[in-house]
């Protein structure tokens, strides 16, 4: 029987794309190492950076918090957990609890901001009062959450905001942008520091080279409790189709996701589009249009009052 390639221990996980058999302990160590390598390869952190970690309460973000707390132990970098409560009754409360519990357990400070505090409207209310059926729940949620995270990060005085996007998330977004012809979004998502400043605080994705199933396995092995229920607004979007296609391809051709990641990195750093950097005429946030995505959404859900208030 094949043993763990690193320590000769009991085999637990076969990493098909690299041909490694690993025991439980070496698998966990490999995830910590991979994250450390990704951070250093893409120069994600500078010495002494204060890191804000966006924690939703799901397996990816709780694993990221756990990993960063572990690999920055004894270093100059301080970590804070940033938690956004969108206001989804019967669903979000549990996730927020997991996020707070894990932060406390790790001895990490945390800050919470709700949509109600930031925009004077919960996601439930926004969805109920939208009159435009083209406006998907996840578009409202994602756009408002990104800004809420920026506000939290600024408030907490962090230098950099770490999000838990894993390899699969990054690839799905890349393919979706290709399919919708949104080359500008591909440029905006690039890692280099010269990317257009659409966020108030610099973003990093330390898990971008770790497949989703390995992050889930890490959470399971470290005994991290996370929310398993799915959001009531989750819809079968094109993302699910892209996810299935990529998973099928990876099964037949192990390593193909990493090839696609290389293509994404090359394309995104070489693509040139007209940088339309300006500020939103309503809230003054960085925006590529006259009115930013947040104010556009708040206006479309007939909540102009909020759009004006977030400027204050
Ligand atoms: Fe928000 Fe959509 Fe995720 Fe639900 S599934 S939390 S609505 S982005
Ligand atoms: Zn705006």
Outline the secondary-structure elements:
Layout: E1 13-15, E2 20-22, H1 24-41, E3 50-54, H2 59-71, E4 78-85, H3 92-106, E5 109-114, H4 115-119, H5 123-129, H6 137-155, E6 160-162, H7 167-179, H8 183-188, E7 202-204, H9 212-221, H10 238-252, H11 256-270, E8 278-279, E9 286-287, H12 293-300, H13 304-309
Parallel strand pairs: 3-4, 3-6, 4-5, 6-7
Antiparallel strand pairs: 1-2, 8-9
Describe, in plain words, how this protein is organized in 3D:
This protein is of the alpha/beta class and 312 residues long. Helix content is 48%, strand content 11%. It has helices at 24-41, 59-71, 92-106, 115-119, 123-129, 137-155, 167-179, 183-188, 212-221, 238-252, 256-270, 293-300, 304-309, and strands at residues 13-15, 20-22, 50-54, 78-85, 109-114, 160-162, 202-204, 278-279, 286-287. It has a five-stranded parallel sheet, with helices on both faces. Strands 1-2 form a two-stranded antiparallel sheet. β4 (78-85), α3 (92-106) and β5 (109-114) form a beta-alpha-beta unit. The longest helix is centred in the middle third of the chain and has 19 residues, at 137-155. The chain is globular. Iron/sulfur cluster binds at residues 137-138, 141-142, 231, 233-234.
Entry keywords:
single chain; about 300 residues; alpha/beta; Rossmann fold; five-stranded parallel β-sheet; two-stranded antiparallel sheet; 9 strands; globular; binds iron/sulfur cluster; binds zinc ion
